[in-house]
Each structure stands twice: as structure tokens, then as C-alpha cells.
Amino acid sequence: PPTSPWPGFSSRATMINLSTRGTVGGSQGVLIGGFVVSGITPKRVLIRAAGPSLGAFAVSNPLRDPAFTVFDSSQNVVGSNDNWGDAPDVAGLLAASAQSGAFLFPANSLDAAALLTLDPGSYTVVVGSVDGSEGTALVEAYEVPQ
Fold first, then answer.
1. 110: how many CB neighbours lie within 10 A of its CB?
2. Cβ pair 72, 121 in contact under 8 A
3. Which of 36, 134, 137, 46 is nearest to 84 (CA)?
4. What sections of the chain are H helices per DSSP?
5. Distance in angstroms (rounded) separating the CA atoms of residues 23 and 29
6. Closest by Cα among 109, 138, 118 to 37
7. Whole-angstrom distance, CA of residue 49 vs CA of residue 140
8. Residue 91, Ramachandran bin (φ over 0: left; ψ between -120 and 50: alpha; else beta)
9. Distance separating alpha carbons of residues 110 and 121, to the nearest angstrom
10. Residue 131, number of CB atoms within 10 A of its CB
11. Are 28 and 22 in contact (CB under 8 A)?
């Protein structure tokens, strides 16, 4: 197999987590994150938009009510969520969060999350403010082990 020029880095490594934080709403608009699913088989990916739960991490002015939409490279919507607790598979979201090392959202929070099975390709996550407020949000993508 190919070797890596960086000590301790495996050329067979997989993405564990990709995240970015920024201001959403008001004059700032939306927060956009992108990622690529590599390989030849679909992968399970946990997508999250944290807002209210960021207050527990001393983030000032967390976004009150984030929602997100995931687009593929052809701009087709492949997933979305507003309020993770309203998702069709809350137990699956909790298991995927624990399995991937994501911090747990409080039970009744307005944070957003979805567990998607995505084909190889490029994806964009767009996070917006449901209620029009402005605040700090965190968008995350986790590869969930199968």
C-alpha cells in the first residue's frame, strides 16, 4: 500500500469529523460547509447543526434555532433537518452520535441533526436560522462506522 509522508498518518485513514463555526442569520445569512464522500460505496454520515447546545461550551450568542439542508453536486436536496428531536429515527441519531464521538444534544434542544447514507461525491451543507435570529452555529459532518 502507499505510504504517507507524515509520520503516524495512515494512507488508509478515513474522515472522522469535519466542522466549522460561524455567524448565521441577520446580515451574515447562512453558514456553508462542504465535504466529499470518497470510495466506491455509500457511507453513513451524521450531519449536525448545533446552535442552542453551544451555550454549554461557553460560546457567546449561540444561534437559537438552526436548520440545515444537504445538497449533492447537482444541487439536489439529499437531506435536511430542523429540530433533531423531531427526526424519524432519534434512537439512530443518538447511537450515531455516540459511535462517532459527537457530543450529545440535550433532549429538547432546537439543534438539528440527520443520519444519511450518501453515495460517493461532493456535498454542501447550508445552515440557516429558522426564526431569523442571528447567532453562532457549528456545522458538523461525521463518518459513522458501519
1. 22
2. yes
3. 46
4. 90-100
5. 8
6. 118
7. 6
8. alpha
9. 29
10. 11
11. yes
Residue type, 116: L
Contact (Cβ atoms closer than 8 angstroms) between residue 38 and residue 44:
no
CB atoms < 10 A from the CB of 121, how many?
13
Q: Which amino acid is at 80?
A: S
Cell numbers 451555550: residue: 55
Q: Which amino acid belongs to residue 12?
A: R
Distance (Å, whole) CA 144 – CA 43 = 8
Q: Which three cell numbers stand for residue 32?
A: 456553508
pLDDT per residue of the chain (146 residues) written in tens, 0 to 9: 455 555 554 445 556 788 999 999 876 799 999 999 988 999 999 999 999 999 999 999 999 999 999 999 999 999 999 999 998 899 999 999 999 999 999 989 999 999 999 999 999 999 999 999 999 999 999 999 87
